[in-house]
Automatic annotation (TrEMBL):
Designated gene of the protein: mfsd2al1
Protein name as catalogued: Sodium-dependent lysophosphatidylcholine symporter 1
Species in which this protein is naturally found: Danio rerio
Family matches, as SUPFAM superfamilies: MFS general substrate transporter (SSF103473)
Keyword Magnesium: no
UniProt-listed InterPro entries: MFS_2 (IPR039672), MFS_trans_sf (IPR036259)
């Protein structure tokens, strides 16, 4: 009887919309994932290659297999979350809060260098294990957090508004993470770049001067390793604070046609139902190829700026320009999606990225060129941050209308959505690093051959451009436009008021 009373109260609350404080606390709860993943995307490759001095082949295995493991854990965590029962503090939030300490610890250990000199086997094992452990616990945070959007209360407009808050804060989180990481480790990368420049200019000299430069380079390397550990500790503290804000500021509500109970559908049946839903498949693959375009680009950003454009001391500034542009652009895309619809807005947003990539392809990589590219890519990046996540609840609602007997599958939808994105991201960065291995990339070297420079250029612009165009073609065939979305919401309301609806079966 008490459970029925609580459910009735939550349903009444959900009709009142989502309070601003709940939206804000919900948005802050997504910052840990974006901060840690941003740092991994921008800095993990150069950390393994130039700071740990790991062979490119082993680094590619860690980057690919680690992301592949991360991707595989998402559907499993999603199903585990779906099967778990509801507690006094909810069903989703306990997963976020109780796995937080282990997530923080594993993230710090991922950036810790246990020895000055490590064998290839030990180095690979250390970073691969901690990468997999961290990715497991961040999945335990991100999968239930993503699903929480469906359980904040309110209607579809409230959910879209909450998504906009979330994406705005998450883009800010990427900016903050890059700024913090860049300020802590960027100065040390700049010093090493300067030392390399001196070594390249004095290759014919020998004796004490060359030995002195070598000693300076080793000291700079040790300082860089320490800086990465300090940055990881700072990120861990922010991770903790954001989870506490989510815990104290958000209370789960009952979603339409849902009782937030443990699902009864077998795992494989649920997965099969999800991946056979046509709008979901097209949204997933459109998001996959579009996000891959950004991931391949930013994954090679640091190496391209350092070794191809010879602007290594500026790369953290390019990152800040990109993410600042993205942060400013989120409200613009939110306004446009309300006025012209989500499908039209995603096309417009992705199109802005095309001139930036073409500019890199046809012109030399000067400081001005990279600044312009950073601004345009940031504006476009904001659309890929916001739009697909705003479109996903529409797909879930469409599934509910067409399959009213299959309820409470939201965690599976969100976890599979993240799975394809992460797996594709792991594939892109793993293949990128493997390509560098085959063209002769030397870890920690100050100068590379022309094949390495050419490969970095290909990975930085032409490949992302091709992936982006594929994503836009898939989005063209995405079936839920603004008119169809309105029909789905009307059908959902009709199902919710039928005499034999799920809510009345549950006594709600």
């Amino acid at each position: 009887m008490d459970n029925q009373t609580d459910a009735n109260k939550e349903n009444e609350d959900s009709q009142k919309g989502i309070p601003f404080s709940r939206k804000l606390c919900y948005a802050i709860g997504g910052m840990p994932y974006e901060m840690t993943i941003t740092v991994k995307v921008f800095f993990m490759q150069i950390f393994l290659l130039d700071v740990v001095k790991m062979e490119a082949f082993y680094a590619s295995l860690i980057l690919f297999l680690g992301r592949a493991w991360d991707a595989v854990t998402d559907p499993l965590v999603g199903y585990a979350v779906s099967k778990s029962g509801r507690t006094r503090i909810g069903k989703l939030i306990p997963w976020i809060v109780f796995t937080m300490p282990l997530g923080v610890l594993s993230y710090i250990m991922l950036w810790y260098t246990p020895q000055d000199t490590m064998s290839p086997a030990f180095s690979f094992s250390w970073y691969f294990i901690w990468c997999c452990v961290f990715d497991t616990f961040i999945s335990c945070h991100h999968v239930p957090y993503s699903s929480l959007n469906m359980f904040l209360g309110g209607d579809e407009k409230d959910r879209d508004s909450a998504t906009a808050y979330r994406m705005g804060v998450e883009v800010f989180a990427t900016l903050a993470a890059s700024a913090i990481q860049g300020q802590i480790v960027g100065v040390h990368h700049a010093k090493r770049t300067h030392t390399c420049s001196l070594q390249n200019n004095t290759e014919e000299l020998s004796g004490n001067y060359t030995d002195k430069l070598t000693d300076i380079s080793e000291i700079a390397l040790q300082n860089t390793r320490t800086a990465y550990l300090i940055a990881a500790i700072v990120m861990g503290i922010l991770y903790l604070i954001c989870c506490l804000v989510l815990f104290f500021g958000v209370k789960e509500q009952v979603a339409p046609l849902s009782n937030l109970d443990s699902i009864k559908v077998p795992y494989l049946t649920g997965i099969k139902m999800v991946v056979r839903h046509t709008p979901y498949v097209r949204l997933v693959f459109g998001f996959l190829f579009s996000s891959l375009a950004f991931q391949v680009n930013v994954g090679n950003f640091a190496l391209f700026c350092t070794h191809a454009a010879h602007l290594g001391s500026y790369f953290q500034h390019f990152i800040l320009i990109t993410l600042a542009s993205a942060t400013i652009s989120v409200p613009m895309w939110q306004t446009l999606l309300v006025r012209i619809g989500k499908k039209t807005t995603i096309f417009l947003g992705l199109s802005i990225y095309i001139p930036a990539l073409v500019e890199i392809i046809v012109s030399k990589s000067s400081l001005t060129t990279l600044i312009i590219m950073s601004v345009l890519s940031g504006i476009s990046l904001a659309s890929i941050f916001l739009l697909p996540w705003s479109m996903l609840p529409d797909v879930v609602d469409d599934f509910k209308v067409k399959n009213p007997s299959f309820l409470d599958l939201e965690p599976l939808f969100y976890s599979c959505y993240v799975f394809f994105n992460k797996f594709g991201g792991g594939l892109s960065v793993g293949i990128s690093t493997l390509v560098l291995h085959f063209v002769g990339y030397i870890p920690g070297a100050c100068k590379h051959n022309s094949e390495v420079i050419y490969a970095l250029w290909i990975l930085f612009a032409p490949v992302p451009l091709g992936l982006l165009l594929i994503g836009m073609v898939i989005f063209y065939f995405y079936p839920i436009n603004e008119e169809q979305r309105q029909k789905i919401q009307e059908a959902l309301r009709n199902i919710g008021t039928e005499p034999n609806s799920k809510e009345e079966e549950l006594g709600l």
